[in-house]
Amino acid sequence: MLDETLPQQTVRYLKQVLGGDAVRVAHSETAQLPYFLQDIYEVLQGELLGQPVTFACIKGSQPLAAQQVNLHAKRLRALLHAPVIVALPKVAPGERKQLIQHGIAFVVPDRQLFAPQMGMILSERFGFEPRREQELASPATQALLIWFLNHHPVTQTWHPFEEAAALGYAGMTATRAVRELLQFNLFQLEVRGRAKYLKLVGTRRELWEKAKPHLRSPVLRTLWTYDRRILEVTGTCWAGESALALLTMVNEPQQQVIAMTAEATQQAKHSGIFFEPRELADGVAVQVWRYVACMQVKEKTVDPLSLWLSLRDNRDDRIQVALDEIEEKFSW
Length: 332
Known about the structure:
It is a single chain. By secondary structure, the protein is α+β, with helices and mostly antiparallel strands. The chain has three domains: about 5-125, 3-Layer(aba) Sandwich (Trna Endonuclease, Chain: A, domain 1); about 135-215, Winged helix-like DNA-binding domain superfamily/Winged helix DNA-binding domain (Arc Repressor Mutant, subunit A, Orthogonal Bundle); about 220-330, no CATH class. The chain is about 35% helix and about 20% strand. Strands 1-2-3-4-5-6-7 form a seven-stranded mixed β-sheet, sandwiched between helices. A four-stranded mixed β-sheet has the order 11-14-13-12. Strands 8-10-9 form a three-stranded antiparallel β-sheet, covered by helices on one side. Helix 5 (about 140-150) crosses helix 7 and helix 11 (about 305-310) runs antiparallel to helix 12. The radius of gyration is 23 Å and the shape is globular. The relative contact order is 0.10.
């Protein structure tokens, strides 16, 4: 709420996501704190899920370097003898990356809680309230939107029907996809004679942010196989952490991950490749995708935005940092 202070927002958010009795706080006697800390933070002491905790709520919107916040948190912990969680009104992807790399526990009300020392990592990406099915884009709609973002770096007006055909969608499916894109207010319709075009309003990055709540993981299900021939099947490309390792600084996973469509999976079965529905320690993980996995024909990996969607619910900190890097490096 707009009239809530940051401490009030923090307490409300934590009670919302962890339960009404999860947080107990009181305004602390902070006279013993150094003046510079009193100037920067409003400090609350209490308990979080029964554990002692200090909330250091930043006053105002002044930017602070992660290294500086780290020093402040250590000083507060030494003075108040409890773990410190820094509350921020907002955090940019680059700032979040720095906070996580420094191991700083922090909370951004209504968006994220990062406190691994206390066993808690929550994010808006994890979807506390599941998105209703009718609010989600169909696979064809999502594929077309991802195609646009990957292949139209400049063009603001777009005629999607030819590209829908290239992705294997019939005219009726393309029409429904266009209707959904308009329904979600992601584009405006522009009519030129008998032809219909979609007009981008705002920037491509704004389009992506606006579309996120309507997009789902492209992974329909995951199968496993010991048969290494699967790596040579036409229409496969690196996915999951295997793709992330090629695009960022994340280490390669122990188990290779590839993506392919359901049709390609059936063709692989007909060629004699056997799949297991359960994880195989030494096998290859095969993600069956809802739409074409290899949109970027010349690349060895799935496209970066679909990769982001496939991993956004992963709770591994290093994965989340790498996903921020994916977005930062994308050609918006």
